[in-house]
Amino acid sequence: MSEQRSSQVDRVREGYAFDGPSIVLGAAVGSDGDAVVSDAVVRLPLGSMNRHGLVAGATGTGKTVTLQVLAEQLSDAGVPVFLADVKGDLTGLATPGPGGGKVQERMDGLDQEWEARAYPVELLNLGGHGVGSPVRATVTGFGPTLLSKVLGLNQTQESSLGLIFYWADQQGLALLDLKDLVAVTQHLISDEGRAELKGLGGIATSTAGVILRELIALSAAGGDVFFGEPEFETSDLLRTTADGQGVITLLELPGVRDRPVLFSTFLMWLLAELFQDLPEVGDPDRPGLVFFFDEAHLLFDDASDAFLDAVEQAVRLIRSKGVGVFFVTQTPTDVPDAVLAQLGNRVQHALRAHTPRDAKALKATVSTFPTSDLDLGEVLTSLRTGEAVVTVLSEEGAPTPVARTMLRAPQARIGTSEEEVLRTVVAGSSLAGRYGEALDRESAHEMLAARAEAAARAVEEAQAAEPEARRPTTRAPGSRQDPREEDRSGGGRARDDDGGVVEQVVSSPAFRSMLRSAGTVIGREITRSLFGTRRRR
């Protein structure tokens, strides 16, 4: 038995001894589950982090602390990090850890260096709900596929929403906020809008009604302040400090926890924008950004096939842009198989097996790991807080031996920072001046209103001119009208078959052309990404 334990530890030593730059996750725990083998260091190569990863485990098993450990070491390696702070307890990264106690005990057992440190943090929030600079996206930038996920639309409704976006694009109508999309949708189910859609198909009134109701609900839930301008630039996630540390960007989400689909889908929009904006870099020796996708199950719940295909494609292709994506959730079964297959780095915390459903999820989780001498079914249910089962991709792309690992302690504070610290971080942010104030430029809502006003004026002018055109010429009493004039004027009455001046103006090609072209003076260059997202440049 001792020889078997020794061979397991030897495999960990050999399997995690990388030549290139790497971060330290911790050290292997012996087969007895008690002793930490400090010289069997478990590492993660920086060059493998764009192969993506998964951090999983039941509630309370230490996933958030693991995220903090990863973020700290990536920052020290000069790699920018993006973290979705769903519960608001990652702001401790801005404050040095207190040390002592359990932290000191753990680091003594690992025989690894530890220093209390604060890290460069940037705080963002969704549309003004929380601490930090507000992050916004335009409706056009978000695109119909992602917005359909937020609105909970079925495939037919999603298709209709795509048609609405397409028509607005063709007409040069900028969809910046939700009232723009509401105005366009209402226009397209009017008589005039139906005529304009005649060559493109149409939108059922019932479908438009569903879309409008969901847009109103989204607006009431905070979408009215999230969608708009200035739109967030992904380059602001790729910053380093003057001394070469990667900036850790925290998206604070407690203010919108009651709208989880919105923030999970926003994260996918941000990933799609990164794919669209970044150049191809192949396989660099370290990533340009590591993106942690917390509460990942919210992204995939009730998602359409088209949406899942788009997520799979985005994750697969963004690797060549030098971006690593780590999904954070409770069990690997929360992530679709096609996406899970691309997550080469795994940090699996403890799982529970209290119910038949739990037992099934445990069995499925075990099957996702490489073959191991460990009894993973038993190990995964007996891991202590701060422990995890780890396997990563080596520098050659091969999976490393499965290692039961005691993870490092963070060097920053675990939990939240004091309000004074957060105020200091916000005050020193270079992003506050760029994103602090919302903009409200002319867009689809105003343009359609201008069209309607112009059409109404044209009708009024035609009506004002019509009585004069129809007024008979004054003649002396008893005189007879020239028969030729009578033939032209219809005996002093407008002839029914010719129609009045108003009808002639409204039905004229020039008038209809004016209606179609009014308000389209603002030109736009539209770029498309995997999700049909579009950004005004």
Reading off the top of the CATH hierarchy, the class of the largest domain is best stated as Alpha Beta
Question: Over all CA atoms, what is the radius of gyration?
Answer: 31 Å
Q: Termini, distance in Å?
A: 65 Å
- Helix fraction? 40-55%
The description of the largest β-sheet is:
12 strands, mixed
| Unreliable parts | 483-529
Shape: elongated
Could you explain the architecture of this structure?
The structure is a single chain. The protein is an alpha/beta fold. The chain folds into 2 domains: 2-136 and 229-427, Rossmann fold (3-Layer(aba) Sandwich); 139-226. It has helices at 2-15, 63-76, 101-110, 139-142, 144-151, 155-171, 178-188, 191-196, 205-226, 260-277, 297-300, 305-318, 337-340, 356-367, 376-379, 419-427, 432-435, 444-470, 483-489, 501-507, 509-517, and strands at residues 22-29, 36-45, 53-56, 81-85, 121-126, 133-135, 248-252, 289-293, 323-329, 345-348, 387-391, 403-407. Strands 2-1-12-11-10-3-9-8-4-7-5-6 form a 12-stranded mixed beta sheet, with helices on both faces. Strand 1 and strand 2 (36-45) form a beta hairpin. The chain is elongated.
